[in-house]
Amino acid sequence: MKLRAVEMRRIHLSLVAPFETSFGVQTERDILLLKAITTGGEGWGECVAGEEPTYSSEYVDGCQHVLVHHLLPRLMDQARIEAEDVGRLLRPVHGHQMAKSAIEMAILDAQLRARGESFAAYFGAVRPAVDSGVSVGIHKSIPELLETVGDYVEQGYRRIKLKIKPGWDVEPVRAVRERFGSVPLQVDANTAYSLSDAAHLAELDPFDLLLIEQPLPEEQVLAHAELATLVRTPICLDESITSAQAAADAIQLGACRIINIKPGRVGGYLEARRIHDLCAEYGLPVWMGGMLETGIGRAGNVAMAAMPNFTLPGDTSASDRYYHRDITAAFVLREGRLDVPAGPGLGVEVDLEFLDSITHWKQTVTA
Ligand code: OSB
Ligand code: MG
Questions:
Q1: What is the pLDDT of residue 112?
Q2: What would the DSSP string read from start to end of 32-60?
Q3: Phi-psi category of 26—alpha, beta or left, where left has phi over 0 and alpha has psi -120 to 50?
Q4: Which ligand 1 atom is nearest residue 292's CA?
Q5: Less crowded by CB within 10 Å, the N or C end of the chain?
Q6: Distances (CA, A) of 111 to 84, 147, 186
Q7: Distance from residue 4's CA to the centre of ligand 1 (Å)
Q8: 163 in active site
Q9: CATH 3.30.390.10 fits domain 3-116+349-366
Q10: To test the ligand 1 pocket, which listed residue (21, 58, 155, 293) has its Cβ within 8 A of the most ligand atoms?
Q11: Is 331 in the pocket of ligand 1 (CB under 6 A)?
Q12: Does the C-beta of 104 come closer than 6 Å to ligand 1?
């Protein structure tokens, strides 16, 4: 097929509750969505970048800019294009994985819709529904945290992840472990510690956590390997894993025993699949991360999370964990799981009337 145009839009969505991490508080989102218009039909992509470059170096205005000026022109001048070509065509542009991922996703959706194949079938899904975990932000107090976690446990989430930072770590973990017994529990530091905190992080060891996610800065892969010899809790990397090559290096260095896969962070679903396959070869389990996606991004993530080596519950929570109203039919928790969409492509339809009502910017890029 040929890529004829890409409709870009930015939408506003308020989160149901503020979400605080070690890098800041979010109350609303400004999301870049792409619609690939091809000779074979249309497809949707979601860019996972936040408003500020505080999770990684990418941010939504930057993604918009690099797409318009550097990425889309390289795709639009092709006589024929398939999702499998996008990575190679965009390789001359360094970095910008979240921007690249969004356009590859839109083209893949268009291509799969055209041939009536679901994302799940394309990626070799082995289950009709995936176990859902939930990521719980930093709270003002431990009683408030316990109330939030209690709500999620009652809703049926199969794993709780607590965001931590220096000053909000051992005590909240102890409190949740004491109150909720054997609930599968893990923590995410979003790079907030340094190797000199190893003895403090080892105080988390008695609480039987599934993993500690990204304790140290993105570049400090070797320091994670050192930390792994000083704490018993398995180390999982998120921010550091920007490609399959980065994953292979981190595994060989002993920097992680588990990987959080986020298609947006690694440049797209095809690179994410390579990381899944690589981890399976090395015997490392993976799980599907999240970036507070709408129903578009969630649909792709849930489909990929049905691949065989996604053996831990992901941050694939129900729509109502994030938004009062989603831009697709809501993803709903059923016995702690989300159903994998089975229709062509992403298998979800976008509510265009609602989408238009929350769109604050729109531009169509043509060849
Ligand atoms: O580090 O996993 C993270 C959200 C935004 C940016 C980074 C992260 C997160 C989450 C929430 O933990 C995941 C989700 O529920 O989508
Ligand atoms: Mg994380």
A1: 98
A2: EEEEEEETTEEEEEEE---SSTTSSS--H
A3: beta
A4: 16
A5: C
A6: 10, 44, 37
A7: 33
A8: yes
A9: yes
A10: 21
A11: no
A12: no
* pTM of the shown model: 0.98
Closest ligand 1 atom to Cα of 188: 1
Q: How confident is the model at residue 167 (pLDDT cuts 50, 70, 90)?
A: very high
Joined tokens for residue 309? 């080596």
Contact 212, 201 (CB under 8 A): yes
Which of 265, 275, 273 is CA-nearest to residue 303?
A: 273
- The first and second tokens of residue 79, run together, are 């006589």
The CA distance from 298 to 316, in Å, is 7
CATH class belonging to 120-339: alpha beta
- Helices and strands, counts by H and E, the chain: 13, 13
Residue 288: band (very low, low, confident or very high) from pLDDT cuts 50, 70, 90? very high
Tokens of 313: 């519950």
On the question of a common fold for 3-116+349-366 and 120-339, the answer reads no
pLDDT bracket for residue 367 (50, 70, 90): confident
In angstroms, the Cα distances linking 142 to 119, 171, 180, 212, 217 are: 40, 8, 13, 20, 27
Residue 80's pLDDT is what? 97
Residue 260 is predicted with a pLDDT of 98
- Residue corresponding to tokens 């298609």: 263
Looking at the chain, the whole-number percentage of residues with pLDDT higher than 70 is 100
- The CA-to-CA distance between both ends of the chain, in Å, stands at 14
